[in-house]
Specification:
Layout (H helix, E strand, L loop, with lengths): L8 H6 L1 H35 L2 H4 L2 H25 L5 H10 L5 H6 L9 H17 L20 H15 L4 H7 L6 H4 L3 E7 L9 E2 L6 E6 L2 E8 L7 E3 L12 E6 L3 E5 L2 E8 L5 E10 L4 E9 L4 E10 L20 E4 L10 E9 L9 E10 L4 E3 L3 E4 L8 H15 L4 H11 L3 H4 L3 H15 L5 H20 L3 H19 L4 H25 L13 H24 L3 H24 L6 H41 L23 H35 L7 H26 L2 H37 L41 H16 L6 H13 L1
Parallel strand pairs: 3-8
Antiparallel strand pairs: 1-2, 1-4, 4-6, 5-7, 7-8, 9-10, 10-13, 11-12, 11-14, 14-15, 14-16
Amino acid sequence: MERYDNLPEAAAARVKRPLRLTWAGLFVERLTRAFWPLATVLFLALAWALSGLAAIAPLLVTQVVAGLVVIAGIATLVLGFARYRAPTKIDAMARLDASLPGAPIAALADAQAVGATDLGSRAVWEAHLARMATKLDAAKGQAPRADLAPRDPYAIRLIALTALAVALLFGVRAAGPGLTAMIPGAGGDQVAQASWEGWVEPPSYTGKPTLYLGDQAPGTLQVPEGSRVTLRLYGKVDEIEITETWSEEPPTEPVPTRLFTIDTDGTLTIGDDEWQVSAIDDADPAIEVSGELSRTLAGEMRQGFRATDDYGVATGTAQVTIDMPSVDRTFGLAAEPEPREPILVDLPMPFRGDRSEVEELLVENFAQHPWAELPVSVTFTATDAAGQTGTSTPFDIVLPGRRFLNPIAQAVIEMRRDILWTTDNAAASARILRAISNRPEDFFPKAEQAEMLRASLGPLEEEDLNPSVRDEVAQALWDLAIELEEGALNDALERLRRAQERLQEAMRQGATPDELSELMDELREAMRDYMEQLAQNAQPPENQLDQPDQGDNTMETTQQDLQEMMDRIEELMREGRTEEAAQMLQMLQQMMENMQMTQQQGQGQQSPGQQAMRGLQETLRNQRDLSDETFQEQEGQQGQQGQQQGQQQGQQGQEGQNGDQMGQNQPGEGQPGQGQQGTQEGQSDLQGSLSQRQRQLERELERQRNNLPGAGTEEGEAARDALDRAGRAMDEAAEALERGDTSGALDRQADAMEEMREGMRNLEDAMRREAEQQQEGQQGGEQSANRGGPQGNERDPLGREAGERGALSSDSPLADGEDVYRRAEELMEELRRRSGETERPQVERDYIERLLDLF
């Protein structure tokens, strides 16, 4: 390193400070590399002492550890001195010079070897030295490079440092006893100081945090009932007096650890600290029924409930028992029933979140249970994590069962119920079933169905019918009834229902978008299969073969409606509007059930109510078209007035906005009188045509009003009154058109359309009332409150109410397209935009405002 001896004093002065810092870094670097094993031993020893392990470990173990620490310390100290080499000034200068580009310090210390007497060579050398001197300004002190990772591949030094940090944070209170206990020969009883730690851990189901007693001020302490207390004593444990009121047999000798549970109010004393502990009672859960019971045609029941608990409801059950005093003990139910266990079902609970207040919906299907359609008593029970229970007030219902419309299916189900009630009914049920199977061609559409019934008669006619065979026969009879009720649709319908239920459950539980998309695809596939089987089973009556074929159109409309609804459900799920999607999915399910009912009841000619509704829809559509043309005529009048003003000013007239020119293309100069005369004649002819068409619509509405069904009913009379008001509005609109008052005509036409919609809504109510009365008669006086909706002839093939309460029908121009909802939103947005354009004529903006008010 003699190459740095000739460094000029000026250059040495410029690197003096960086050189000192670099030397200090080298010193720390070599010291760390040499003595890191010694530091590791010291860190481990301090961690042992400060953590309190030395205080609680046996004295012999503590002394052995202390001896090992001393031996390891001496060994690592000797090894460190053997490895250590003190850094020199030359070492620091070499480290600093290596950090600079071009090694300027060594260059400045060099001398010119050749050409020293040559002036040119001398000048080049001096220029080189000047450039090297400028690089000294970038000199900075170099940090130490311990590079311990290759020397300590197992990171023992980091483990020791972590142990020391943990001991400093959590074991400082035991530091005194630990350090003194490590001294060989020093009796722990002579120098160890007594200390303690304590924790109060509430039951996990409470969700409350653990309390550290050392941080709790003496006085009143409230903790949940069942909290577990842990006390740890260090040092001279006999010097710490502990008293508590919860242990039945407190220890007589001092122990380093005390455990007990707080189940009542009491007192805890540790040395000079005392707490009055109050145990917070764990209240019993409470549960009650919310809302009314609902049922579906398939026998599915839905009942809401609300459960509460101070720390959260763990589980819940619903128990269903037969209400024998309320059972009509006639026919097959007159015999003494066989004993059956109550029905127990688990109540749905949220998977995540707070359970202190739970509002859920129990959805179950008991259609195949022997108690279906019989009086039962239902009791809800809620249980918390501590095992405490709370029950609701029992409520009496008729256990929902599947509603069968096929008379033979009804008879089969009744016989099935009788044999499940008791096997003593087997013989009587067999006789009735055999009578049904006597003439299979009159009752069974397929020969296989009659064979299914005959196969069930053999076991029923045997003298000893054991329960297992009885259950097999009951299942066979159920399958036969389903086959009679649904025909070949059963498999596809079950898949469709299962897909709907899975999608509903996934939305309720907050499934991911990918999971919802997969379930939506499953629903689409099940829907497609069901529609195919429905189309195959649809056979028009013989008396309709000579009429226009509406089956294909109906099926096409049905598929389009269902497709649009499923598209809308998927769109709502993508937007995160799961509640709206669930509601629309429920509507879809109701539509499918109604479609099934319509398929079972057969297709016939349209009822008078349907014919009247369709005629009113057509009249409303014509009135809307006439109103649009009236508005266009008013636009033309406004454009003509602007032309006349332009002609008076000698300017060229402008064209009307809606393209109805009719004499408006006359130049501003020439013979304006002739152009105005031609325009006025054209407008007069058009207004006459509009008024005539308005009169025709008025006469057509009067004819429909006179032929309107539902006479004598409140809803029917309300429909007639609304249509009468609509007719008067049409008459006033026609008079306004005859006067040339298009603005007034538009107002009266809007009133006429609104009254027509009101009349259609009243007509629909009348049709619904008639359908409900028909169903009540068909069901033998059964209550219709639990029906899925009126199912009569006044419904379309989807079972929807005719007219949809005045909404647009599926053949309306607005309903065409792939997404009627999106188109409706776009139309409303366009109307709002146009209403805010001030450059449009006032009459047009007034018309748009009326449209917005109506829709």
